[in-house]
Write a structure and sequence with these properties.
alpha+beta, six-stranded antiparallel β-sheet, 5 helices, single chain
């Protein structure tokens, strides 16, 4: 069972990006942000760095270096969805699409997209976030 808690205060620059998104996008992105922080705590990957990368909220396991960066965004050209973005040099999105073929939409080897309407598929969202947060640690264990 996942212990629910309030994520840390959001840095002002990240807060400004979220605030510029439409209300439905803000709600979905806040839900994803909560999942990121909850899974990071559950997985014991150390403190997360919350910052902007390419103008988008990004989450890094800077201290432990256990995971790969997770970015999230709503894009005006795709107004009915939001996405999580991952390092395109990794096999993360491929593994995510194999594990959850129908829960999300996938764009190449870098993005997982979900509709703004409807509930976040909690189990699948936690699983893909966990894959990213432990990517380097798990990869080292596999080799």
């Amino acid at each position: 069972m996942v212990k629910r808690f309030a994520p840390p205060d959001m840095p002002a620059e990240v807060q400004a990006v979220f605030a510029s998104d439409p209300p439905l996008a803000q709600a979905k992105l806040h839900a994803l942000r909560r999942v990121v922080f909850e899974e990071a705590a559950r997985l014991d990957v150390g403190a997360l760095e919350e910052t902007l990368k390419w103008g988008e909220p990004a989450y890094l396991t800077t201290t432990s270096k256990a995971g790969s960066t997770i970015r999230m965004a709503w894009k005006e050209k795709h107004p009915n969805s939001c996405s999580l973005f991952f390092n395109c040099q990794s096999d993360l999105v491929l593994r995510m699409s194999e594990a959850f073929p129908s829960e999300f939409q996938y764009t190449g080897n870098r993005a997982v997209t979900m509709p703004l309407h409807g509930d976040l598929p909690d189990f699948a969202a936690r699983a893909i976030v966990s894959m990213a947060l432990t990517y380097h640690r798990d990869r080292a264990a596999r080799h």
